[in-house]
Amino acid sequence: MSTEPAEAPAVSRPAPTAARVLAQGLYETRNVLRNGEQLLVSLILPLLVLIGVHRLELIAGQSVPSIDVITPGVLALAVMATGFTGQGIATGFERQYGVLAYLSTTPLGPVGLILGKAVAVLAVILVQVVVLGSAGLALGWSPDLTGLLWLGLGIVIGAAAFTGLGLLIAGTVRAEATLALTNVAWVLMGAAGGAVFPLGHDGAAAALLLIPSASLGEALRSASIEGELAVLPLLILAGWAIFAVLAARRWFQWR
Question: 68, 226 in Cβ contact below 8 A?
């Protein structure tokens, strides 16, 4: 009979935090890219807007904004689609079905879950920038190369603001209401909120420049066309991001 002590059973330990967040982010990215409805809103509709407005410019002439104006606007529309509409709707239904409450009790935790969603948003936006940017270049877009850094900065801040707003809505109202609110708001902000088409800077119309879609559109157009950092629009957008994150942290409900 052996007198050696029995070995203790192996204990399963969770992966490091960064690995858990990255795995969650890649999982959500794959889900978005495989989901036909989300792909339609995030990529196909912005691409159709880009091509459609460019064709209209060729027909109507100078009365329609040029491809140099439209392309950064469509990039703004794509950022809103992914951060606001896509992430808001997905999170709303995950909350309603109890998925969020379940995942928040795993080693990933609430913070890891939110960071994973941020990774997914940035990954999908990277795909959008490559596809829509390539399409814009093929149609004649000629961005100021010195402004590409500011373009990227505007996209990141815009993603933070609109993802925060999407999560705020998803965490405070029912999933069906989130679906309706985010879709309607996305269409309105894209069509008349200064994202795709520039707003006037004089009179009462200037007040609309305070809304996040107008700030994002202004920041991306300034970077792309003039190669400049649009300080005021980015500050407004950063203010929206801070407000959305703080409000979501205060009122977001996991169930």
Answer: no
